């Protein structure tokens, strides 16, 4: 059983995800294909990597292949390409066994806690009310995340709106904010101001190497948990954050870490008694991991109504939780009639 | 696919040769054994070997009726269940045994070797020799390590602790025996928590005047992160420890306090799932792991899938009288078969014979800590070991 080749096609956009994405495919000599989504900007890099390091290897050796794909630390493009290939390997490994990925990984059917995150900074309070109102019609989500505008009074008001909207369905709800990349002292001041009127559960920070001490100061300065990790691209990147106690909550992004790196980093977080959240991913395929991450807390969702792009995962929402189906592999289905698929055909 | 039942068998086994460390220098040649079988509605059974299976009866209801392929979730369910009393003792033994048997089942159901289920590229794991050899004469010591070297193993771990001058002579014996496999054999020592941290520093530094040690194992108590760190900072060898801990939670203070350089991981670390968690934490910290010995080297399946694994301990004292397996050692590596699961079958007739006619031998496992541990060295008494000592009882 061997990987025989790789191909990529199409160009799609997803809410909350930067840039365009394509469908990456790993073929094998058993006639099956492993699929994943890959940022278009790293498509050629991924294909080169696949041909250089994956062809002729057994896709079921997914963990070992992740190490085989290792590149230069800190190279974000290489990490994205590597992650896309790892996702496709795992998809193929599960399809070869004829089972959904969550089962291949050793999990029971995911009934995962999820949090809804409105993509981007909202233009207005009305936009917030509308987006979360639509979301709340899908199911009773227990947590919502808002990207901060930089104006604490506005943000506090919007968070109250989110709370009131979601609590029409279920109580209590957790409120989170995405503080992005901002000046550390200013960030502390703004969040403390918000905390005067809103009970924040966690604050997500965009942080990379060199930001550890600033984040540690944030940990020591606010009531909410500080969530870091979504920008990190290798297991070892997490060491300094754990060691410095510079985060209370670890975010893992499968499009940077693959399934393999996410599994490993999550085990390390568990060793430090830190919960993990999974960053949103197109098709919600990250939810496959939920039952096998020992300190899993929640998975980010940006498009619960799946009103996007021609790619559908195998997730439905029941009582505020994400429930995975039984499609083999990661369960991605590409809608052949969508505009994205039309582009793919023409390509 | 559902779990329908379990059974376990216990027995005693007589080893091919005695084993010992400095806590029980005269050694023992009798060990307890156990096999846990987990049964399914498809007739496939999963097994695990060598744990406190008696605790399984209190936990089995948690997995009964569940799909064994969902082993990681079942591990979490059992681990959560035992949280109040703690993941220790019988509870840890049962969690470990259940988890290993479920992984065996999962791989068997997929009709593939467990190393493949765990994501490894090949069933091949680097090995080092470990004689558990405190009770072996110098000639027997040489014979053991030479036999290992003839299979390509170029690393060895010597039991030390009560007589440093003799330990150094025996290190030389071990090095000489291994020299046919390596120009520069990898030398390790294990004092099994007998020393205090400062004793460890004194003795290891003395040994390092003449030997280049790869690691010193359990140079202080397993939980003493400050003491272990002190040793690590003051000797050249890496500090290895952890095989007697229970879970990733136990490793946390060691890792967070930079008290360990090589993590000894084992089946008793809450099973394959728990052991893998520890290895992944070590990987994030850039630390290597080494798999502890076990019957038929079954944990090599996991070792093969760990990116930071540096070598598995091979003792080979003859613990497989009722097992059928075809893993072997070649060119310094454990070679696992392609048979489904762990690749081990229980020879039920041999097992029944062992139960019907329990062998007799010497010693009792587990053995106690030797007098003086962590305080003073209690010298070897005449006749306590079959080799020439430099110490003399007053």
Task: Write up this protein.
- The complex is a heterodimer of chains A (347) and B (394).
- By secondary structure, chain A is α/β, with parallel strands linked by helices.
- Chain A is built from 11 helices and 15 strands.
- Chain A has helices at residues 43-53, 62-68, 76-96, 101-104, 125-138, 152-166, 184-195, 212-221, 239-243, 254-271, 339-346, and strands at 3-12, 21-28, 33-39, 111-117, 143-147, 174-180, 202-205, 225-228, 249-252, 276-278, 296-301, 311-312, 315-318, 321-324, 333-334.
- In chain A, the strands form 3 sheets. Chain A has an 8-stranded parallel barrel. Chain A has a 3-stranded antiparallel β-sheet with strand order 1-2-3.
- The model of chain A has no long low-confidence stretch (mean pLDDT 93).
- In chain B, strands 4, 5, 6, 7, 8, 9, 10, 11, 13 and 14 form a 10-stranded mixed β-sheet that branches.
- Chain B is globular.
- Chain A binds chain B through residues 57-58, 60-65, 67-68, 93, 97, 99, 103, 105-108, 235-236, 238-239, 242-243, 260, 263-265, 267-268, 270-273, 291-292, 294, and chain B through 66-67, 69-74, 76, 79, 106, 110, 112, 116-122, 248-249, 251-252, 255-256, 273, 276-278, 280-281, 283-286, 305, 307.
């Amino acid at each position: 059983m061997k990987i025989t080749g790789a191909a990529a096609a199409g160009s799609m956009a997803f809410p909350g995800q930067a840039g365009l994405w394509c469908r990456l495919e790993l073929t094998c000599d058993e006639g099956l294909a492993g699929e994943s989504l890959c940022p278009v900007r790293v498509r050629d890099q991924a294909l080169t990597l696949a041909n250089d390091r994956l062809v002729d290897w057994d896709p079921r050796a997914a963990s070992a292949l992740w190490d085989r794909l290792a590149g230069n630390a800190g190279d974000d493009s290489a990490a994205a390409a590597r992650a896309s290939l790892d996702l496709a390997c795992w998809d193929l490994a599960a399809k070869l066994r004829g089972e959904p990925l969550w089962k291949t990984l050793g999990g029971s059917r995911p009934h995962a806690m999820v949090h809804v995150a409105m993509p981007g900074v909202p233009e207005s309070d009305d936009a917030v009310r509308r987006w979360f109102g639509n979301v709340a019609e899908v199911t009773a989500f227990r947590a919502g995340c808002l990207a901060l505008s930089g104006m604490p009074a506005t943000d506090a008001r919007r968070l109250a709106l989110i709370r009131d909207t979601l609590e029409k369905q279920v109580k209590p709800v957790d409120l989170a904010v995405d503080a992005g990349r901002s000046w550390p002292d200013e960030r502390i001041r703004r969040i403390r101001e918000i905390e005067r009127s809103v009970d924040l559960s966690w604050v997500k920070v965009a942080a990379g190497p060199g930001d550890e001490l600033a984040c540690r100061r944030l940990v020591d300065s606010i009531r909410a948990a500080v969530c870091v990790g979504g920008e990190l691209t290798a297991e070892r990147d997490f060491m300094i954050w754990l060691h410095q106690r510079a985060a209370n909550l670890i975010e893992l992004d499968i499009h940077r870490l693959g399934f393999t790196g996410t599994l490993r980093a999550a085990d390390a977080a568990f060793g430090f008694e830190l919960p993990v959240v999974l960053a949103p991913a197109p098709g919600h395929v990250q939810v496959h991991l939920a039952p096998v991450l020992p300190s899993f807390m929640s998975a980010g969702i940006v498009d619960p109504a799946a009103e996007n792009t021609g790619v559908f995962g195998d997730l439905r929402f029941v009582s505020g939780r994400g429930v995975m189906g039984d499609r083999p592999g990661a369960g991605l289905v590409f809608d052949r009639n969508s505009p994205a698929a039309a582009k793919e055909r023409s390509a | 696919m559902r779990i329908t039942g379990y059974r376990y068998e216990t027995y005693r086994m007589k080893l091919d040769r005695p084993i010992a460390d400095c806590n029980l220098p005269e050694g023992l040649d009798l060990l307890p054994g156990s096999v846990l079988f987990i049964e399914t509605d498809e007739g496939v059974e999963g097994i695990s070997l060598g744990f406190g299976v008696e605790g399984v009866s209190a936990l089995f209801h948690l997995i009964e009726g569940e799909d064994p392929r969902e082993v990681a979730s079942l591990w979490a369910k059992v681990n959560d269940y035992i949280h109040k009393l703690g993941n220790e003792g019988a509870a840890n033994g049962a969690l470990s045994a259940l988890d290993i048997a479920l992984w065996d089942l999962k791989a068997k159901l997929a009709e593939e070797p467990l190393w493949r289920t765990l994501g490894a590229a090949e069933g091949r794991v680097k090995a080092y020799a470990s004689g558990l050899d405190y009770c072996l004469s110098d000639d027997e010591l040489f014979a053991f390590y030479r036999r290992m070297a003839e299979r390509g193993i170029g690393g060895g771990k010597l039991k030390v602790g009560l007589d440093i001058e003799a330990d150094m002579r025996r290190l030389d014996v071990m090095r000489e025996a291994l020299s046919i496999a390596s120009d520069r054999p990898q030398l390790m020592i294990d004092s099994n928590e007998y020393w205090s941290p400062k004793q460890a520093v004194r003795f290891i530094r003395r040994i390092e005047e003449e030997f280049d040690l790869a690691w010193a194992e359990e140079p202080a108590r397993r939980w003493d992160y400050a003491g272990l760190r002190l040793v690590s900072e003051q000797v050249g060898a890496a500090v290895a420890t952890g095989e007697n801990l229970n879970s990733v939670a136990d490793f946390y203070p060691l890792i967070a306090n930079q008290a360990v350089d090589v993590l000894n991981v084992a089946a008793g670390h809450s099973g394959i799932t728990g052991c893998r968690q520890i290895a992944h934490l070590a990987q994030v910290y850039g630390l290597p792991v080494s798999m502890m010995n076990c019957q038929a080297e079954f944990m090599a399946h996991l070792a093969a899938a760990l990116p930071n694994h540096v070598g598995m301990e091979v003792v080979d004292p003859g613990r497989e009288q009722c097992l059928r397996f075809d893993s072997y050692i070649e060119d310094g590596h454990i070679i696992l078969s392609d048979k489904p699961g762990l690749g081990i079958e229980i020879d039920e007739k041999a097992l029944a014979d062992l139960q019907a006619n329990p062998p007799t031998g010497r010693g009792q496992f587990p053995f106690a800590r030797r007098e003086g541990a962590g305080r003073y060295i209690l010298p070897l008494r005449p006749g306590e070991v079959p080799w020439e000592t430099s110490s003399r009882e007053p």
